[in-house]
Amino acid sequence: MYLSDAWEDYQILDAGDGNKLERWGEFTLLRPDPQAVWPMDEPVQVHARYLRSPTGGGHWEYARPLPDSWPIAYRDLRFIVRPTGFKHTGLFPEQAVNWDWMRAVVARANGRPFRALNLFAYTGGATAALAAAGAEVVHVDAAKGMVAWAKDNLAASGLAERNVRFIVDDVMKFVLREQRRGRLYDGILMDPPSYGRGPGGEMWKIEEGLYPLVAECAKLLQADARFFLINSYTTGLAPAVLGNVLQVALGGRGGRVEAGEVGLPISRGGLVLPCGASGRWER
After folding, report:
1. End-to-end distance of the chain based on CA atoms, in angstroms?
2. In sequence order, which residues have a C-beta less than 8 Å from that of residue 224 and are 6 or more positions away?
3. Between helices 125-132 and 144-156, what is the axis angle to 10°?
4. Which one of 27, 155, 230, 239 has the lowest number of neighbouring Cβ atoms within 10 Å?
5. How far apart are CA 111 and CA 98, in angstroms?
6. Strands 272-282 and 203-205, how do they pair?
7. How far lies 87's CA from each of 51, 65, 81, 206, 228, in Å?
8. CA nearest 42: which of 13, 65, 62?
9. How far apart are CA 152 and CA 156, in angstroms?
10. Nearest residue to 283 via CA among 262, 256, 260
11. CB-count burial class (<10 Å; 0-12, 13-18, 19+) for 176
12. CA 273 to CA 35: how far, in whole Å?
């Protein structure tokens, strides 16, 4: 398992009964998590909890004062978190283990120019990590609001002047245009949703779209490219599926493919909360 266990500003205090109790800096949130099927004691105090609606969606219930947003840190990076109407906070802490891995890959390039493509890039946790490592980054997401948030995160980390391009676009359309432009990359990462729509209404279903997208992205890799990372939160999509996709799409390039669950430690009882899966290719 790829375990994100180097956080100081974030912690899962407990989990169970379909929820996780988290500390984000000095604030505590209780949010649904379908993986936490074991029992948990009712938390005595939280700043806010997300309550699901039986008709879909849900809302936040605030028990103690909570700012609209606040900063948290991971190593030398800073991120702005805020509770959204879809239970998320704008950051997936479990991805820190992938940030560290990508930074190490860039470091092993020994100072050579390194260009990375971040697809379904959300609020830019990986973009900030790669920029901090000295990579040039192209950040692509279909949601204009998420791209704006990513710019704020980059600035919060003191990286606003780094070589980062922010693109609001459908990822497949962007990848095909990059092919026509002859633009190549040293590393590619993607965090595709189970379902989604592009800015022009394009439909995305991971079971249908993942392999074709990865195969097209493979055409954007430099001959001596260093990494390809796929992350997925889709229930039922085993880590081996991501590894197989990379093995088939990148066949003949050499390197090494591995895949595994991604997880976060739970303070109570030494448990681990599974948080999706990652497939990694590295030369």
Report:
1. 21
2. 186, 283
3. 40
4. 155
5. 20
6. unpaired
7. 9, 18, 12, 22, 29
8. 13
9. 6
10. 256
11. middle
12. 7
SS3 per-residue string spanning the chain: CEECCCCCCEEEEEEECCEEEEEECCEEEEEECCCCCCCCCCCCCCCEEEEECCCCCEEEEECCCCCCCEEEEECCEEEEECCCCCCCCCCCHHHHHHHHHHHHHHHCCCCCCCEEEEECCCCCHHHHHHHHCCCEEEEEECCHHHHHHHHHHHHHCCCCCCCEEEEECCHHHHHHHHHHHCCCECEEEECCCCEEECCCCCEEEHHHHHHHHHHHHHCCECCCCCEEEEEECCCCCCHHHHHHHHHHHCCCCCCEEEEEEEEEEECHHHCEEEEEEEEEEEC
Q: Which CATH class is domain 2-75?
A: mainly beta
d(CA 23, CA 31): 11
pLDDT digits (tens, 9 = 90+) for 246-267: 999 998 899 999 999 999 999 9
Cβ proximity of 202 and 120 under 8 Å: no
Q: What is the pLDDT of residues 197-226, one digit of tens each?
A: 777 777 778 989 999 999 999 999 999 999
What are residue 183's phi and psi, to 5 degrees?
-90, 130
- Confidence band of 76 (pLDDT split at 50, 70, 90): very high
> What class is the 92-282 domain?
alpha beta
Rounded Cα distance, 82 and 47, in Å = 13
Domains of the chain by residue range = 2-75, 92-282
pLDDT tens digits, 10-22:
999 999 999 999 9
Q: CA 194, CA 282: separation in Å to the nearest integer?
A: 25
Residues in the chain: 283
CA separation for the pair 63, 79 (Å, rounded)? 24
Q: Encoding tokens for residue 16?
A: 């169970």
